[in-house]
Task: inverse folding
């Protein structure tokens, strides 16, 4: 069992944390909780400190991820990069607005408008022993605007010192997410749910969110159906046959919860659908990074449920702006399990007004369904590959060729090979990059 947990992904750890919190927090002996209040306050203290650190990190995450993402989309690969990115972003927006329409029509009927109202002001059964203020360096909205301004500027001057700095900073932020934030999330979620169980709110939350899960899973099916209907119409293929061919990629993503790890399978199945080698090799790895329609739908649905059930005042204009910003955030999200929701926490707080408990609830529910969102993302990549293949006639010109794009653009990993990044970039990543760029791995 210990070996299994050590080798398991973030999903198993989060589910284990939720179940343990629900069970241990519900058991009482002689009128006293199995976990004494004094011990529970230790977890509450950790959750409070972690929330403060997360609030401090959010603007840094936005600047570190969004800035180079915008700079990357503006460089090198020519118009087919821009066209593919536009199709992927359009697909993400479609998923967001479809989810908005469904949630607005369905959720008021199936959700009790006050069922989660207590989460906005959680009970104080477990108070922290102490708190440490960790103010953010800049506000979230300032970080977003700064990322846009600098990112657009860097796309015009790709080889400058600031560009190199943004690459190093992205490596630092990615490692921060991978080695600190993601591993500590289960313990943070355990503390949140333990407190909710002590105050009697946890079971009401779980009962309410089960209905949201059903709607989300149905939406994933509808999104994939719409993507392949459009791809079938554009590429002249049978959409049912095309989506059936992509099922191995879907099932692989269910097991890995990683778009990047599924790329070989997605690439193979896209080629089986008739996509040329050049187009598949260009679109599939790109879309694995920038196309997150399933993740967008999932985040929006749970955010809408929390807003509705807690009475947070969010109007239609705010929702529209949130969808557009969420799509951009998904483009910049790191390719690690749970990375998308961590990147989205900034706009959940700044645009929807979520507090720490609501953000923790969003993280827990997102990660619990992470594999389904990832599976929808990678399967949709196959539809985009079909569309681009039809538009290009099965071949990319010199401006869209991946090898040419690498030569024209500033290769961030190639630069990192030549600077001291021990502890930031792993030896495996350095060796892979060195092999890819024809460099000596020992240099």
Result:
């Amino acid at each position: 069992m210990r070996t299994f947990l050590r080798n398991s992904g973030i999903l198993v750890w989060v589910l284990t944390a939720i179940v343990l919190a629900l069970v241990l927090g519900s058991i009482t002996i002689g009128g006293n909780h199995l976990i004494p209040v004094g011990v529970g306050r230790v977890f509450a203290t950790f959750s409070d400190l972690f929330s403060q650190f997360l609030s401090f990190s959010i603007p840094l995450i936005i600047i570190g991820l969004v800035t180079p993402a915008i700079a990357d989309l503006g460089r090198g690969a020519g118009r087919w990069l821009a066209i593919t990115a536009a199709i992927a972003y359009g697909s993400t927006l479609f998923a967001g607005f479809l989810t908005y329409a469904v949630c607005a029509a369905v959720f008021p009927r199936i959700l009790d408008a006050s069922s989660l109202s207590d989460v906005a002001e959680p009970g104080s059964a477990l108070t922290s022993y102490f708190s440490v203020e960790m103010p953010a360096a800049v506000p979230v909205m300032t970080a977003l605007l700064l990322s846009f301004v600098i990112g657009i500027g860097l796309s015009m001057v790709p080889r400058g010192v600031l560009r190199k700095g943004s690459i190093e900073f992205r490596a630092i932020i990615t490692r921060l997410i991978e080695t600190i934030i993601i591993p500590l999330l289960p313990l943070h979620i355990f503390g949140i749910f333990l407190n909710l169980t002590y105050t009697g709110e946890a079971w009401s939350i779980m009962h309410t969110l089960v209905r949201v899960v059903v709607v989300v899973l149905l939406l994933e099916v509808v999104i994939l159906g719409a993507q392949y209907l459009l791809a079938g119409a554009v590429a002249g293929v049978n959409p049912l046959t095309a989506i059936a061919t992509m099922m191995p990629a879907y099932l692989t993503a269910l097991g890995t919860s990683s778009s990047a790890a599924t790329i070989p399978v997605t690439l193979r199945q896209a080629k089986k659908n008739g996509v040329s080698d050049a187009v598949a090799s260009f679109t599939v790895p790109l879309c694995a990074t920038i196309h997150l329609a399933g993740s967008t739908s999932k985040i929006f649905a749970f955010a809408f449920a929390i807003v509705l059930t807690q009475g947070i005042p969010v109007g239609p204009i705010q929702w529209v702006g949130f969808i557009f910003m969420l799509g951009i955030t998904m483009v910049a999200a790191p390719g690690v399990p749970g990375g998308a929701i961590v990147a989205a926490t900034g706009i959940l707080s700044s645009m929807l007004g979520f507090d720490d408990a609501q953000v923790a609830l969003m993280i827990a529910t997102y990660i619990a369904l992470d594999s389904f969102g990832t599976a929808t993302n990678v399967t949709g990549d196959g539809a985009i590959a079909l569309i681009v293949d039809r538009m290009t006639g099965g071949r990319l010109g010199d401006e869209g060729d991946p090898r040419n794009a690498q030569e024209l653009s500033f290769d961030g990993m190639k630069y990192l090979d030549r600077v001291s990044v021990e502890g930031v970039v792993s030896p495996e990543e350095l060796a892979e990059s060195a092999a890819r760029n024809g460099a000596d791995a020992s240099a």
Remarks:
- Confidence is low (pLDDT under 50) at residues 118-124, 398-411, 439-443.
- The first helix runs from residue 2 to 7.
- The longest strand covers residues 28-29.
- Residues 93 and 202 are 32 Å apart (CA to CA).
